[in-house]
Amino acid sequence: MVSSAPSNATPLCFSINSTPFNHSHTITSAYFSVVFSGLGLSSNLFALVVLAKTFHHTKSRSRSSFLLFLGGLVFTDFMGLLVTGSIVVSFHITHFNWRQLDPHCHFCNFMGMSMVFYGLCPLLLGAAMAVERFVGINQPFARSTVMSSSRACSTVAMVWVTAGCISLLPLAGLGSYRLQFPGSWCFLNISSKPLEMTFGLIFSLVGLLSLAVSFLLNTVSVITLLKVCCGQDRAQRRRDYEVEMMVQLILIMTIASVCWCPLLMYILKTVVSSLTVDPYSVLFYLRLATCNQICDPWIYILCQESRLRCLLHRRCCRAVSSTFATCFSGFVLRRGTRSWIPGSTSYSDVPF
Asked: Which residues form the G-protein coupled receptors family 1 profile domain (predicted)?
């Protein structure tokens, strides 16, 4: 009789929310989860292939380090969708019972840790990329500020370790992970209790601070880049790659802010003000945050696609130059015109 009491005790991850949840089929549609996860996985996988090919042909050290950061970001998004998406899709397809499958909350804790880890990593990586670009743009001639590939890899690993340590805090007693509505995922317990509130504050403040650092440093970098590009020395220093990297970084920061700020602000407001948690709001904000993992790879894919068009245009112009003179300012000059110089690629007295 004494040994049966602990078996009937409700595990911590089920102590507030009881399963199965009463929910409508439209909210927890299996088709939505499958399409959402499939689109995100395929997008990130395609971006990884494009990044690997670009990194192989890159000679610039600053650009190669930036590509390593991007690769770490895309790889993290891919693994996050793979781990969490497989659990959510499995639930919607099989409708397994969490109490029977995970009576000791090990599986729920693993998913909660994954949600926190893969949620913080993109935000921290965005801040690290902003720091790298800030130093590279504002001190371009200092050799010590040029980040090597090994240092970039170390920074990405440090971000992973930091996010991993934060996700392990509930296992050490600071906060806890709970099953969330509609019963398909686990996340940190949003509560005003001291330990739960502390972990909620750590998660939300780290995310918001990362976004604030990214915004501040990216703003200064853009202003500096505009001064250089529009100043008197604009012809002495080519800034094509810096402009391209800053455009990508600004887009990454903007999408991360739009996707993550609602959830982070909601957690911060709820734990501080002791408000009642609305499960529908948490689910909506979480899905909005997950959109960041789908949008991140398309930032680089679209930017790379625009460059591929330029490269293809240049190669076409070179191919045409074997029959024609050159590709200049959008039109072609044939051999034999008065601007053609035999044995040279230069032209003079071009008629407009």
From this structure: 43-300
Instruction: Write out the H or E segment, with its range, that includes residue 63.
Output: helix 61-94
- Report the SS3 class of residue 29: coil
Question: How far is residue 170 CA from its own chain's centroid?
Answer: 24
Could you please report the per-residue DSSP string of 94-114? H---HHHH-TTSHHHHHHHHH
pLDDT digits 0-9 by tens, 203-237? 999 999 999 999 999 999 999 888 877 765 554 44
- Per the listing, tokens 């891919």 go with 78
State yes or no: cis peptide before 6, omega within 30 of 0: no
CA 119/CA 124 separation, integer angstroms: 9
* Tokens read off for 59: 């000679």
Q: Please state, as a whole number, how many other Cβ atoms lie within 10 Å of the Cβ of residue 283.
A: 19
Q: In angstroms, rounded to a whole number, what is the distance separating the alpha carbons of residues 288 and 314?
A: 40
| Identity of residue 204 | S
Calculate the CA dihedral of residues 75, 118, 92, 15 and round it to 10 degrees.
160
Count how many residues are written for the chain. Answer: 352
